[in-house]
Design a protein that fits this description.
single chain, 262 residues, alpha/beta, Rossmann fold, seven-stranded mixed beta sheet, 19% strand, globular
Length: 262
């Protein structure tokens, strides 16, 4: 009989790479946590995914690799889908304060802050759940990067309607559904820059331990151009690490609380 716990520990969380760099993001989260707690196994570490959506892109693969994952999101349909997808995650429908007093080794806020009118309110609420030596991971789109500009052009030119028509009439995979990380389609209301993010982190007593870009191009027009080529997708993700951070479509940050903020 195989030891399922040992198998989990040996298997790193995995997602097939895409134009948005979701596979890279998952590896970033896993590597960051393991480096932060080198004496611990995944099954000993607790993770809180704030604004987890349906969990398909982070919470579920992390839980399947052994982490003790709790996900919270106010969007009921996303949470319901997450529960259907995986019993491994403790999904909670509601806001973060509904969880009660708890501490986690790692708190994740991924692709959430850009949807909020008051992002720092959520950030401060999330910090209350971070263990004293815990790791905070934040990912956000570059507010003036390729994704945002590409998306605006895509909508302005009504290309979404053309793509929908072409898909309905010519696609050979009409029944294939891409599972987005959330069923909530609320728009971005924040356009972050690196200086603004650094000011936010400083105001909240956070020190950036690592900052990386996700991918270079990730908007819907680039998806049409690159999305069918595995090699181009891999290049799009890999090349970002060799370019200035300001050129990336999105950013990933590993942060720790300063001593004075604990």
């Amino acid at each position: 009989m195989h030891d399922s716990t040992a198998e989990q520990e040996a298997r790193a969380p995995y997602l097939e790479e895409n134009i948005w760099g979701y596979g890279k993001r998952l590896r970033f989260v896993d590597d960051t946590i393991l480096r932060g707690f080198p004496q611990s196994k995944r099954c000993q570490l607790t993770v809180l995914d704030v604004g987890c959506g349906n969990g398909s892109q982070l919470a579920i693969p992390l839980a399947e690799a052994g982490y003790q994952v709790t996900g919270v999101d106010p969007h009921q349909q996303s949470i319901e889908r997450g529960r259907r997808l995986s019993p491994a995650v403790r999904f909670h429908h509601g806001v973060i304060s509904d969880l009660g007093p708890r501490k986690f080794h790692c708190v994740i806020i991924s692709e959430v802050l850009e949807h909020l009118d008051a992002p720092e309110v959520l950030l401060r609420a999330a910090l209350a759940y971070l263990a004293e030596c815990g790791i905070l991971i934040i990912t956000v789109p570059n507010g003036y990067g390729e994704f945002e500009l590409d998306s605006r052009l895509y909508r302005m030119l009504r290309i979404d309607r053309l793509v929908a028509w072409l898909w309905a009439n010519f696609s050979k995979n009409k029944n294939k559904e891409y599972l987005a990380g959330s069923d909530d389609k609320s728009p971005h209301v924040q356009r972050f820059t690196l200086p603004r993010l650094r000011r936010i982190f400083e105001r909240n007593g956070l020190l950036v331990a690592e900052a990386r870009g996700t991918s270079l191009a990730s908007g819907p027009l680039m998806l049409l151009a690159l999305g069918s080529s595995t090699n181009l997708i891999q290049l799009n993700v890999a090349i970002t690490d060799r370019l200035p951070l300001s050129l990336a479509s999105g950013w990933m940050f590993s942060l720790r609380l300063l001593e004075s903020a604990r």
